[in-house]
């Protein structure tokens, strides 16, 4: 076992980081760190210096760990800085640091393929790397990590961000850049992430924006770009993204917008043009979107409504489609006017 100060430099491998504004190292008293090499899985407990288990603040582990070693690691209640970038494991157990009140800084191993479910859920984590090898971020992996600060940089090969993955990470900041490889965004993945700013560009390949994915991301203050592959926007997807600005352009293949999807998106402006393939428009989908000017439906067949609360003072429809709209359920009392020209 080698005892050294191991945390002066971050690992040099290519990684994606949450970047902290203030380093936890500079905010805590100086303390010697411990480096343990586990050559035989299952022996971490034997290698840990007994007299320092309770007051150990910084720990570096190399080698390979098994389930028993990870259990020991989870029981080290005083650890603030943990470097496991040198272990050869490519998987970690779920909820390993869930609700830890001491963990601040973690270096994960390159080669890791997934951030497991609830790995840091509701912990005091402030800095962490996401290795470039990661393709999946699990359910609630960073949920409620209110101390995470700085920009979120996601791996280029990432395909899945699961439900609630970053829900409540309210101090992440800067642009939210989603990689082109991303094909799945889980429900509430970025809900209540108030600090993100700039444009929101959703990558091609996404077919569904799920429930509450970006709900209450009130710091996003640029344009929103929807992918051509998109067919469904679920309820509350962008609710209270009040600072998003500019014109909202829907892809031709969009067929469903559920209730309250864009509720409170006051910064959206210009004309709103619904594609002719739209089949369902949920109640209050655009409630309090006060910047929208005119609304156009391109389809000769009206979309299905849940009720008559579509929150538009006047709706423009294609020439000759008025009879179909008037005979459709909930369209009877909605003010409509036929027009030959659809102004995008």
Helix-strand blueprint:
Layout: E1 15-17, H1 24-27, E2 34-38, H2 44-47, E3 58-63, H3 67-74, E4 81-87, E5 105-107, E6 114-115, E7 127-131, E8 136-137, E9 160-161, E10 174-175, E11 184-185, E12 196-197, E13 200-201, E14 208-209, E15 224-225, E16 232-233, E17 256-257, E18 270-274, E19 280-281, E20 292-297, E21 304-305, E22 315-318, H4 322-327, E23 336-339
Parallel strand pairs: 2-3, 3-4, 4-5, 5-7, 6-8, 8-9, 9-11, 10-12, 13-15, 14-16, 16-17, 17-19, 18-20, 19-21, 20-22, 22-23
Antiparallel strand pairs: 1-7
What does this structure look like?
With 344 residues, the protein is mainly beta. It has a domain of 59 residues. It is built from four helices and 23 strands. Helix 4 links the parallel strand 22 and strand 23. The N and C termini lie far apart (68 Å). The N terminus is likely disordered.
User: Could you give the count of β-strands?
Assistant: 23
Q: In sequence order, what are the helices and strands, one letter per element?
A: EHEHEHEEEEEEEEEEEEEEEEEEEHE
Q: Would you tell me the overall average pLDDT?
A: 90
Percent strand:
15-25%
Structural class: mainly beta
| Head-to-tail CA distance between termini | 68 Å
Radius of gyration, in Å, reads 25 Å
Q: Return residue spans where pLDDT drops below 50 for at least 5 consecutive residues.
A: 1-17, 19-31
Strand order of the largest sheet: 1-7-5-4-3-2
The number of helical runs is 4
Which word captures the global form? elongated
What is the percent of helical residues? under 10%
Largest sheet: 6 strands, mixed
Oligomer: single chain
